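Protocol step 4 of 5: obtain the predicted structure for the target chain.
Materials: sequence only (see below). No template structures provided, no constraints applied. The aim of this step is simply to have a reference model before the mutagenesis design in step 5. Sequence pasted as it appears in the construct record:
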Amino acid sequence: MPATALAQLKPGAAAPDFTLEASLAGNAFEFSLAQALKQGPVVLYFYPAAFTKGCTIEAYNFAEASDEYKSYGATVLGVSADNLEKLKEFSVSACRSKFAVAADPDAQVIKAYDAKMAFIPNMASRVSYVITPDHKIYYAFSSSDPDEHVPNTMAAVKQWALNGKVQ
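Step 4 output (structure tokens):
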């Protein structure tokens, strides 16, 4: 089954709505995509597992860029199949209390966004999306390299902001 990891949702597609238990700075709360989109675009990134090398690097990169995302009105959310207790710790350490991470232990959101790993369908692959307030996929990016997701999603957020915030 070739290129399964690249089978993500395409720009222009409707973004599946969801609500997940999440953690920001070690505090649990309910993250609603619909609510977050009322504030601006959402950078939704999926990652395989908290505290693994690549995922820790990626979370650190998103934390470092979080103020710049906020300057464009964007909210960052990381999603994995990890449980909430593990993500409470991850949200403080790797995420530096800068953005939320959400638990999707049954992988329903991971599957809805075609972000499942090819050979382990209940685990997320490394896929990032920029979702605009009209609930559409503006940008999709898939790469196993954790260092590529922030520059690519940031460029998409900037493009959206500079183009009059229309698709």
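Step 4 remarks: The chain has one domain: 40-162. The two ends are 32 Å apart (CA to CA).
Proceed to step 5.
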